[in-house]
Amino acid sequence: MKKSFLSLCFLAAVLSVSSTYAQQTASEYFDIGVNKSKSGDFVGASQAYSTAIAMNPDNPSSYFNRGLAKQQLKDHRGAILDFDKTIDLDAKNALAYLFRGKSKGEQEDHRSALQDYNRTIELSPEDALAYLYRGTTRAKLLDYRRAIEDFTKVIELKTEDINKFQAYYSRGTCKLRLEDFTGSIADFTKAIDMNPKRSQTFASRGFSRLKINDFTGAIKDFDEAIKLNPEDSESFYNRGFSKTKIDDFRGAINDFDKSITLDPQNVRAYYGRGFCKSKLNNQKDAINDLTKAIEVNNINIDSKVTYSGRINKNILDELRNVVQEKGKINEFSDDRSEAFYSRSVARFKNGDSKGSIADLNKSIELNPTYAEAYFFRGFVRSATGAQKEALQDCSNAIKLNPKYGEAFYVRGIIKHALGDDNGGCYDLSRAGELGYSAAYNVIREYCN
Fold first, then answer.
1. Where is the signal peptide (predicted)?
2. Considering the entire predicted model, what is its pTM?
3. Which domains does the chain have, with CATH numbers?
4. pLDDT tens column, 216-246
């Protein structure tokens, strides 16, 4: 009996030490994540937090910090999931609501973001950033008057100058939208006093001055905007428009020229330049410019459908071809499935996709748990246009190896190409989380 009691005590001691060690190890990985975040290595930070979560899944700080790291990587869907988990574990974490709202806003889910900011303010009524974000969201929802109330609150609260500057600028923009041009000029002027190096503030004040027919003042503001940002096509256009209003047609043409050089699709600049050329009796060139103003990007006279911002076939091929097959040699088994797999790679590289798939079919037949063979067959099928079959192969590879980052990546870009943006971006988020960092390049480009 005594021996049994001592054995139980020993076991309890071992479990206690083991638990303490695991907790310390999770804490160490958390600290690694913090240090990597501080150094700008957000991919490494995300991986470190993932390890900490695997060892201690009940620590809300690990999910929150991983959400922040994903947010920096523009992986907003993945960040939202982490902030969801943070809130599940700590329902009064005001910052989790705040940053979840920010990621929702980046996904254009502004009404849901607004709810998160409301909750943040309930929990932390003096959080200037929450009012700033809520005001910005209300402005995007065209609720300019209530947005102005939020920006005014930011100005009243004790907060950093950068937040006050942004509040003045954003309040000025809302007043401009409400056609309170005098009020907007006052706010833009205050913002300029706080930060005279931001071109957009001068450009916005110039536009408000243009609206009250202060053309000379507008031109001066656009001068400053262009000095600070010589690539600003819109400010060249607006300065040209202002010059047209005071009959400086030659000066206006110079500005419209520059605007068109910077943005060949700026139909208003073609219109303005055509107008000025006609005033200067250069009717032939005026007609050419005005014709461009009518025809460029005019969907009413051009029925051709164009696609932009999506993953089309050419982009899919380009993104998929970033992936390399596993370079490590596998042990040669009695069924020789590895040989069929390796020959499939060689055949594919030699342009024989049909032969490659035949070898992969045989490899999988001999070894139905061969995750790499499923993945590479999905890769080859995608390259030959069989995207739905490729999706199934990638899914099978993931079932066999849930940490197969490349499989999540390829499945993600295929889903996106087939119109499942949300599912594709979640897969890309998972790929990045598993260490396949190329996924974050695609997330930045196509998931925001």
1. 1-22
2. 0.68
3. 21-125 (1.25.40.10), 197-298 (1.25.40.10), 313-446 (1.25.40.10)
4. 999 999 999 999 999 999 999 999 999 999 9
